[in-house]
Design a protein that fits this description.
Radius of gyration: 26 Å
Number of strands: 20
CATH superfamily of the largest domain: Glycogen Phosphorylase B
Helix content: 25-40%
Structural class: alpha/beta
Strand content: 15-25%
CATH topology of the largest domain: Rossmann fold
CATH class of the largest domain: Alpha Beta
Largest sheet: 5 strands, parallel
Number of helices: 14
CATH architecture of the largest domain: 3-Layer(aba) Sandwich
Shape: elongated
Strand order of the largest sheet: 15-14-18-19-20
Length: 375
């Protein structure tokens, strides 16, 4: 541990600044120990420690006996500050949100917004879902930066909880990929819930994705969607993998286009999507109803509180849509009686062919749900 907290016993001028008697600061360990030996400062009695990091457990020696701290409980604990150093023996990258528990008047003097860099290699929909935990961390005093692949940073544009300035500062890195989610999802625990629990925020109220559309984007979408008094239905015909792609969208659209304005949200022109990410979000917001598979478009629609009908095969719609109050999940019928998530016990190839349980969904199922929304 390279830094420790100290409490000044006298007012003191140092190379780190001027400090008053009773003020608590975090300083390099060697300097702190020197000042302690000189009798001009001491280690504070107690601090409150909230763990942010991988779920781990570790046995360490404190007060002459061995005790076991289990991080996956993620409960803030008040500890003697001299014992906090033991927690740094955990492997991997950890962040400890340390607050003084017994001197509320000086909390502001030791709390600064620390730069966090969230690194994640997920697909588009999962990256957008990351915005739920970003809001949680921001509201706890952190300055948030993200590093994702390709053009996915566009999903965070206009998001007030994400640093938009591209500043190059020292960051504390949190590797989101290191948090195991697939086993938990098969136990019906939504990915964002696992992230929050593993980061120490299992009680956070922020779980829904955040997506922000500018006034300019809204105006563009209104001009693009010439509804002419009709109800506008946005349809996404594909997903990130064939296993999530329903095979009956064409007959569905032939029925719907007789009465409604249909916009194919993922239509390609010359092998390029006709909407970029920002345009896509704005058009979704302009639609009255969205029909989609388990895809990015579902999560944008959920973030924007749009009425949405979503089709699920091997993933569980009730779990995936639990934070989307206006989403109606339609679940394909599985021979096992419940979604298998990623185990694919039906022996289908998730990455090359449609999932059998998704195939079981009929056009009439969507029409029935749609009529419930309209009438």
């Amino acid at each position: 541990m390279d830094k420790i907290f100290i409490e000044w016993l006298v007012s003191q001028r140092t190379s780190y600044g001027n400090f008053k008697k009773g003020e608590i600061v975090k300083v390099p360990k060697d300097d702190g120990l020197t000042w302690i030996e000189r009798g001009i400062c001491r280690v504070p009695d107690m601090v409150e420690v909230t763990y942010v990091g991988k779920q781990q457990s570790y046995k360490w020696r404190a007060l002459g006996k061995k005790e076991k701290y289990i991080l996956n409980q993620n409960i803030p604990r008040v500890l003697p500050l001299k014992d906090v150093k033991y927690l740094h023996k955990f492997p991997g990258e950890f962040l400890f949100n340390q607050r003084i528990a017994y001197k509320k008047s000086i909390v502001e003097s030791i709390q600064t917004k620390e730069n966090l860099l969230l690194k994640y290699n997920g697909n588009y929909g999962d990256v957008l879902r990351l915005s739920g935990i970003i809001k949680t961390l921001y509201n706890d005093g952190y300055r948030i930066n993200v590093k994702v692949k390709n053009d996915m940073c566009e999903l965070f544009k206009n998001n007030p909880y994400v640093n938009q300035t591209q500043e190059h500062k020292e960051h504390r890195i949190i590797q989101i990929d290191d948090i195991e989610v697939h086993d938990k999802e098969q136990a019906n625990i939504l990915r964002v819930n696992t992230w929050l629990t593993d980061l120490g925020y299992e009680d956070s109220p922020y779980r829904k994705p955040e997506y922000y559309i500018s006034e300019e984007e809204q105006k563009w979408a209104k001009d693009y969607v010439d509804r002419d008094g009709r109800l506008v239905i946005g349809i996404a015909t594909s997903a990130s993998v064939p296993g999530k792609t329903w095979d009956k969208f064409i007959p569905l659209m032939k029925i719907l286009e007789k009465s409604y304005m249909i916009i194919v949200l993922d239509k390609k022109i010359n092998n390029e999507y006709r909407f970029n990410l920002r345009q896509l979000g704005a058009v979704i917001d302009e639609c009255d109803i969205i029909i989609t598979g388990d895809s990015l478009i579902l999560h944008i629609a959920g973030a924007l509180d749009k009425h949405c009908i979503c089709l699920f095969g091997n993933t569980d719609g009730k779990i995936m849509c639990q934070n989307y109050s206006n989403c109606i999940p339609i679940q394909g019928k599985c021979k096992l009686g419940k979604p298998c998530w990623y185990s694919m016990k039906c022996k289908s190839n998730y990455h090359t062919e449609i999932n059998p349980c998704l195939k079981s969904i009929k056009v009439k199922d969507i029409i029935k749900s749609l009529e419930g929304l309209i009438f």
